[in-house]
Amino acid sequence: xxxPSLADIQAAHERIQPFIHNTPxxxxxxxxxxxxxxxxxxxxxxxxxxAFKARGxxxxxxxxxxxxxxxxxxxxxxxxxxxxxxxxxxxxxxxAYIVMPSNAPEIKKKAVKGYGGEIIECEPNLMAxxxxxxxxxxxxxxxxxxxxxxxxxxxxxxxxxxxxWKEDIPFDTIMAPVGGGGLLGGTALTTKYISPQTKVxxxxxxxxxxxxxxxxxxxLIPMVSPKTISDGLLTSLxxxxxAIIMEYVDxxxxxxxxxxxxxxxxxxxxxxxxxxxSCAVPLAALLKNKARFTGQxxxxxxxxxxxxLAKLPFK
Length: 315
Fold this sequence. Notes:
Elements: H1 6-16, E1 25-26, H2 29-35, E2 38-43, H3 53-62, H4 66-71, E3 73-76, H5 80-92, E4 96-101, H6 106-114, E5 118-122, H7 126-140, E6 143-144, H8 151-157, H9 159-165, E7 173-177, H10 182-194, E8 199-205, H11 210-217, H12 239-248, E9 251-255, H13 257-271, H14 277-288, E10 297-302
Parallel strand pairs: 2-10, 3-4, 3-6, 4-5, 7-8, 7-10, 8-9
Antiparallel strand pairs: 1-2
């Protein structure tokens, strides 16, 4: 399997420049003191559509041929990828057909419609999503853009950490959450190309720990019935991303929901920024394993900020 090269990732960054924010790196002296290391938070919660997904969707859409663009794009998603693809298609002036389960949050449907995406509802199960998508693709001729297990998407997500490395900080460790693995896979590729000695470590919820179990077993183990507050990480690890992770990721650390909520609260209280639960997983993993990171310079990707403020998990 041929992974995207550093040149591919740099080209993707150039390609998507007009469609993304170069998000800031923020620090918190209070969190550094608690953690015992120096943390640089890459704030993709400030990204277009509120998540890093804007990068991969934009790259995939921009790489389409004129003929493919004429027929538009399609995907199935109930989360940030749905909004990201609808927005990227809107900017490109092409149609986007988004298959969403009937029980998808209204706020997510509203976002997709707001970006001009056409929603096709289906029953809330994977088979219904896939068969409905297939029917849409056959009817429209649209190109299917998967949310994470797709080289053009991984290439786009890899641009996030590329921006971090442009800051000339000698990171000892880079951390990201892992769900489908597009962000982690891209982060690992860029980091190991630029600084092979830097550790790449993922955080994963205990209730959706297929990446951790797959990493330990050295074979892909699909997730069955995941349950975690980190709704952005409920999906199973992709095959391409598993291959990248096995080659380039140093470790995957598990945290429970109580630890995720505590880390999320810490960021709200100390940094005064909005993040979603999935975002807090790497910090939770660091705080649980502080001795591993003592005195290090650690980059943490805050993956997104799309959270229902009426349902914050704090007591």
